[in-house]
Amino acid sequence: MNQLFNVITTIGVALLIVPTVCLANGKILATPGVSQVEGSGGGGLVPWAQLAGYATEDEIAISAFCTRATVQDFQLDTCGAQVNFYDRLELSYAEQNFDVEPLSTTLSQEIFGAKVRLYGDLVYSAWPQLSLGIQYKALDSDDIAFALGAHDNKGVDIYLAASKLHLGALAGYNLLWNATLRYTEANEMGLLGFGGPNGNGGIQGEVSAAVLLNKHLAVGVEYRQKPDNLGLNESRWRDVFVAWFPNKHVSVTMAYVDLDTIAALPNQDGWYVSLTGYY
Amino acid sequence: MSRFTISSISNFVTNIVIILLTFSVFSCSSIKESAEQQTLYQALGQQQGIERLVNIFIKKLGQDKQIFPYFAKASVSHFRQGFISHICEASDGPCQYEGDNMVDIHTGMNINEADFNRVVELLVLAMEEAGIDYPIQNKVLAKFAPLRGEIIKI
């Protein structure tokens, strides 16, 4: 309920900021991608160089999303919103609620994000689109994180993302890839705090690749490296996804996610579903 | 002796199978390659198909409130002939585009990113209506996408 309220507030504020703007729909269908689990425009797990929403140089776009990922012992619910100013600056907010079923508890985290497009256009520029982003994370429920040895309940991730869509590159089908370098101290994205006895994170690599089967449907894979600061065998995340873009107002993403070991509990895999609405 | 014979027969059969497989793979790929070389112009239905596509495209441009103003003062027949020969050349057909260059045509129009993308969408809709397959549509877009810098914001 609190989560829903936050999303509505964010959308409300965004609407107040942009009283005169009309529907932003300047980008080509599907090219903004979807919403990743920390609220930034991206794939499902990885923030991409594209900014969320369909705004181009003289438009402002607003989008909101909710995502659920369910694996053996955990469930993550994330809802959030993004505002895209002139396809130059993306501001995002997300609230995560992470159910730890073995402990019958829920951990909550807030994430504020900003992303600036530094260069290029996903489709048209000779070199890939390049963006620099930041995610400020505040873990509200920090008891478990500190019990496991985390050093902090707040952290800042900084990432540099490059993405490119190659028209007709794969036997006539459009190929999209994204590569992201992220500096992070977060344990399990921040849900288990920041830093720990094994170190304070570092630079991690994240990649995504997708093929558009038609203008409404993309299939792809993602891979996200993560540090193991707590010494609990924190592992890479990966997924296989299908994203459906029936029109410029909504997208639906479904994925099979393999999160491997979380808090020393191995073989966490399961399903991911995400809905984004665009204005 | 008999073991030697059996082994040599089996070697011989294996060799033949390998040769046949190699041959079939190569012949398949060469057929596919030559088909692919022809595809774009052929897949668009050659001159007739391209003319049909451009006619549908012009109809869509004329019906679009966002884009029509750009064409209000343009000569439709001039645009039609120019775009037909441009697509023909870009798809490796037997023509040469001899119209004005992109910069001269679009200077002063001040086309923004959104309007450029809208025209791309209308071209895609026209290709769909003309029955052109999705992979072929993408190959056409790939030919024209690099021209964007000579078209927008000038």
TrEMBL record, chain B:
<dbReference type="InterPro" id="IPR012292">
    <property type="entry name" value="Globin/Proto"/>
</dbReference>
<keyword id="KW-0813">Transport</keyword>
<keyword id="KW-0812">Transmembrane</keyword>
<dbReference type="InterPro" id="IPR001486">
    <property type="entry name" value="Hemoglobin_trunc"/>
</dbReference>
<keyword id="KW-0408">Iron</keyword>
<dbReference type="Pfam" id="PF01152">
    <property type="entry name" value="Bac_globin"/>
</dbReference>
<dbReference type="InterPro" id="IPR009050">
    <property type="entry name" value="Globin-like_sf"/>
</dbReference>
<keyword id="KW-0349">Heme</keyword>
<feature type="transmembrane region" description="Helical">
    <location>
        <begin position="12"/>
        <end position="31"/>
    </location>
</feature>
<keyword id="KW-1133">Transmembrane helix</keyword>
<keyword id="KW-0472">Membrane</keyword>
<protein>
    <submittedName>
        <fullName>Group 1 truncated hemoglobin</fullName>
    </submittedName>
</protein>
<keyword id="KW-0479">Metal-binding</keyword>
